[in-house]
Amino acid sequence: MTAEIINGKEIAAKKRVEIAKQVQELKEIGVTPGLAVILVGNNHASRTYVRNKQKACEELGMHSILIEMPEDVSEQGLLAKIDELNQDPQIHGILVQLPIPKYIDEKKVIESISPAKDVDGFHPINIGRMMTGQNAFLPCTPYGIMVLLEETGISVSGKHVVVVGRSNIVGKPVGQLMLNQHATVTYCHSRTKDLMFHTRQADILIAAVGIANFIKADHIKEGAVVIDVGINRNEAGKLCGDVDFEEVSQKAGYITPVPKGVGPMTITMLMYNTVKSAAESTAR
Ligand code: NDP
Q: With a 6 A CB cut-off, is 208 part of the ligand 1 pocket?
C-alpha cells in the first residue's frame, strides 16, 4: 500500500483564501485585523518564524507589527510592552515568539497577554475553555491538524488516536481536540513502556517528538493515518519530520510530509485566530 499524501500546503492555501475574504469583510466595516509579534533576542530560527508570520499577514491584507527587544530586556520591560499592546485597539492578536531568555518567567509572560488577544491559544484561560469545549483560541498547530483531517474527509469520531509527545503546545492539546471530537485518545511520552504496542493500535498516529525519523513502519498498523508534526534536520542537514517517510508511507493509509504537511497550517491558523479576534472585537 502507498499512502495518500495529505498536502498541507494546498489545504493551507485554500484556508487562506477564506481568511483573506474575511479580512476584506472586516475592512469594509473599518476593522483591519492586526497582529503584534514580540521577538526577544536574536535567535536565528525565531527570526525566520517571525518573518514568515509577518509575510502571511501582509499577503492577507492584515496589519502586523514586529517589536524587537534585546536579549537582556527585563521581565518588567517585556510585561509593560504586552500591557501596552493589550490596550491597543488596532492590535487583535499578541504573540511572544518562544523561546524567551531563561531568566524571564515564561508562564508570567503568557498569562500577561489578554485572553481576548491570545491568538497562540497558550493562556490558561483559553486552554481551560478548550478543555471544556467552550469558545476559545485553539493552539495553532493542533488546530491545524484538526483542519487537515477535516479537509481530507477523515473523521475522528470513534477512532483510536495515539499521540506521541505531551508538550503543552502540541501533544497535550492535540489529544484534547481529538477527544472533543469523540476520539479515544492514548498519550505516549519518553517514559511510556513498549511504545510500539501503543502506536500499532493507532487508527490515527500523531508524532510530536522532535527526533528525526523516529517513527518507523513497524510502529504503525497497515492503513493508519500518520500525522508528522516534527521539524528536524537529519544528518545531512535536510529538513525532516519525526516519521521515517520513506518506509512509513509504504504502509500508512494517509501521511503528512515534511515540509508541506503540518507546518503551513500552523501559520494559517494563527491568521485565522487573529481574524477571529478582530471579528469578536466588533461585537464588544
Ligand atoms: P517537546 O520537546 O516539547 O516535546 C517532545 C515530546 O516527545 C515530549 O513529551 C517527550 O516526552 C516526547 N519524547 C521524547 N523522546 C521520546 C521517546 N523516545 N519516546 C516517546 N516520546 C518521546 O517538543 P514539541 O512538542 O514542542 O515539538 C515536537 C516536534 O514538533 C519538534 O520537532 C518541533 O520542532 C515540532 N513542531 C512543529 C510545529 C509545526 O508547526 N509543524 C509547531 C511546534 C513544534 P517527555 O514529556 O516525557 O519528555
A: yes
pLDDT digits (tens, 9 = 90+) for 22-67: 999 999 999 999 999 999 999 999 999 999 999 999 999 999 999 9
Are 102 and 210 found together in one domain? no
Number of domains in the chain: 2
- Extract the C-alpha cell encoding 80: 509593560
Distance 209 CA to ligand 1 centre (A): 3
For 185-218, give one letter per residue: b (16+ CB within 10 A) or e.
Answer: bbbbeeeeeebeebbbebbbbbbbbeebbbbeee
Bond into 259 cis (ω within 30): yes
Bridge partners of residue 240, in order along the sequence: 232
Asked whether 66 lines ligand 1 (CB < 6 A), one says no
In the set 53, 81, 251, 276, the catalytic residue is 53
Q: How much distance in Å is there from the Cα of 207 to the middle of ligand 1?
A: 8
What predicted TM-score, i.e. pTM, was given to this entire model? Answer: 0.97
- Quick one: 104 and 217 in the same domain? no
| 72 a catalytic residue | no
